[in-house]
Specification:
homodimer, Rossmann fold, 13 strands, DNA-binding, LacI family transcriptional regulator (chains A, B), transcription regulation (chains A, B)
Chain lengths: ~375, ~375
DNA sequence: GTTTTACTGTAAAACGTTTAACAGGCGCCT
DNA sequence: AGGCGCCTGTTAAACGTTTTACAGTAAAAC
């Protein structure tokens, strides 16, 4: 109380006990008699004592803080992830240090280094490349690490949580094919990002095998505005597709912006399947049909894995793969039904060859 | 190198210097000879040494970490703020601990306490009530604190950064009045939040003085989906307004969702002025007219204030007030022009009595 | 009645830094 | 030549905890 910061010593003095006892009361490491505990808590309350985490961590090696690294804090997908993780961490008494790599490998390096300097109990990262970042090399065995969303397709040396990206692409493509679309454009953010590549492959392979035709792929980047400009440009000098699959929430935005700007309506003449599921997607006259990622479940899976590792689990890395599902709304036109109608065939409005996408995880 | 964690001592040994020298090389507190510094850096490099922030902070009292508390990490406005702050913090060599109060006073208390336990160098908070949170009482003089966005209207004992909420409401109302709207509904998130109250007052006062009529105010809460349901309910049992002012990005979403669900078009029969400026607002056929908050500038102002305080500034608290501006797009119908046209008067399509809203800050 | 055992509390030694106090070397001014 | 600063480096003492080793007491076992 002398200089302003009240320490364990002040509390001990006021309660008339040793500092070890105060420590035991707060850390719960050793049992302490009920009335003594009372005295200590009372003294602490009166002095507004708070254990100093730096000191505590220095001595014990236990940090109760986890680092969270994402590529972009302006992308709702990542902030949703962070939001969920914050809740889970808080529930378990952890704090989170968040850092953004802005999709830059150099920055990722340095952000990771500063995160590691805190000696966190764990790390959840959405890396910006396929490889394990250099800064993490030395830590792989030691520090609990979970990679989320962007994970090397061939499995990894650390625990991972991601969706089935290939399937996500397939679901989108299958839906459009079922609705009779044949001229499908695939809008990706960047093919340099492996999960995006997977989604593209999922969509393209399916389309190719169904239509025997190679679908066009455009890269719109990770910025909504620039992506919109790019896509507008593209639209102005190419034949209009009958449908576009946007493989990212940002590319969805880019796609919609460009179409809006060119006054091209949805779903006629152009249908759209978007990615992710956010409130703005249903806050429009023609609600957006989209591939839903189970973000909450991903966060939970990542957190649970991290918890297990932090609790000492030394089993080989696991790779959780979550299922995506199609949230059907109004942005896809049913060309098939129209064709049938035109040909005055059987009514049978929805010949639905889609398989129901269960949203549960499969652990390898 | 023995147990796995490499310390300053290992580096000192390998470089053949004292630990103080190593410390000086890394902290830069005292100058150290060029070749010695080289030796030290080389040794550190080889051992992959990283200074332990807990130990460093314990001894020096310097944390190089700031706490960031927001009410909701699922609200784009707050995550945008966090995103900007992360960039600024990174630039200046700080890390950020982020916590969400989920708009709950009790949780805010406990989150603040755990943030404070880190002995951060500063704190940027968007509090969930008007008052200075209990947990911060003791820190007000000591710890650099900046409140953002939600600040007590009468000024505060800590530095604050916010927009001119009253004016924001006025700008929205003025725009609608200028466009000939007379039946204006004000959609707020919660009147318990003081900045929202201010925005409501700004809009209502202006409308009242222009029309001599009390506008209706609805509270839609801070969750987009629940707000949409609430608003839908409201719309079903009240006379349809000619325009809606949504005073929050979330209420904007709620408003649009409800209208979309009821198949009510925008801007005819219902015009909408939204809040904030996000990509999804222009990714629609009728782009959304909205009140733009200068988030980047707010973050910068908050950070600069915090930096100054952290550098020892002891002057009385300042209160930055930023200007909002109207981003006009297509969601407001010009009833005035139509009326004129109908009366076959002068063409004069845009009698625009709005004052241009400069977006620069004023410091009190 | 003495020895174990169990239980609680304490003293003191860490933890890995920073920093105050100090020491040695060298140039500079009387 | 001796004294004074300045520069650079070292030693050792913090910082506020946790934790190990130990001591004292009471209950249980012999």
């Amino acid at each position: 109380m002398d200089n302003g910061r009240v320490t364990i010593r002040d509390v001990a003095a006021r309660a008339g006990v040793s500092i070890a006892t105060v420590s035991n009361v707060f850390s719960g490491n050793k049992p302490v008699n009920a009335d003594l505990r009372e005295r200590v808590l009372k003294a602490a309350e009166e002095l507004a004592y708070q254990v100093d985490r730096a000191a505590s961590q220095l001595r014990s090696g236990q940090a109760r803080v986890v680092g969270v690294l994402v590529p972009d804090l302006d992308d709702v997908f990542f902030t949703s992830l962070v939001s969920q993780l914050e809740v889970l961490a808080e529930r378990d008494g952890y704090d989170i240090l968040v850092a953004s790599s802005r999709d830059d490998l150099g920055l990722e390096q340095s952000r990771l280094r500063t995160l590691l300097a805190w000696r966190p109990s764990g790390l959840i990262a959405v890396p910006c490349s396929d490889a394990v970042p250099e800064a993490l090399r030395g830590e792989v065995g030691r520090l609990p690490i979970v990679f989320a969303d962007r994970v090397p397709p061939e499995g990894s040396i650390v625990d991972t949580v991601a969706i089935d990206n290939r399937e996500a692409g397939e679901i989108a493509a299958r839906h459009l094919l079922a609705k009779g679309h044949r001229d499908i454009l695939v809008a990706a953010s960047s093919l340099a990002i492996s999960p995006i590549r997977e989604r593209v492959h999922g969509a393209c392979d399916l389309i190719r095998s169904a239509l025997d035709r190679e679908p066009t792929v455009v890269e719109l980047g990770s910025n909504a505005d620039r992506g919109a400009a790019t896509f507008r440009h593209w639209l102005e000098r190419h034949k209009q597709p009958s449908a576009v699959i946007a493989l990212t929430n940002v590319t969805t935005l880019s796609t919609l912006s460009a179409l809006a700007r060119l006054r091209i309506d949805i779903p006629d003449p152009v249908s759209v399947v978007g990615f992710d599921d956010y409130p703005w997607m249903s806050a429009r006259k023609t609600g957006l049909t989209a591939i839903r990622q189970p973000i909450a479940e991903m966060a939970e899976a990542a957190w649970n894995r991290l918890r297990a590792r932090m609790a000492g689990d030394r089993t080989p890395p696991t790779h959780s793969v979550m299922q995506t599902s199609l949230q059907a709304r109004d942005s896809v036109r049913d060309l098939a039904a129209m064709a049938e109608h035109a040909g005055s065939r059987d009514p049978d409005p929805l010949p639905n060859p889609e398989r129901p996408a269960a949203s549960r995880k499969a652990v390898h």
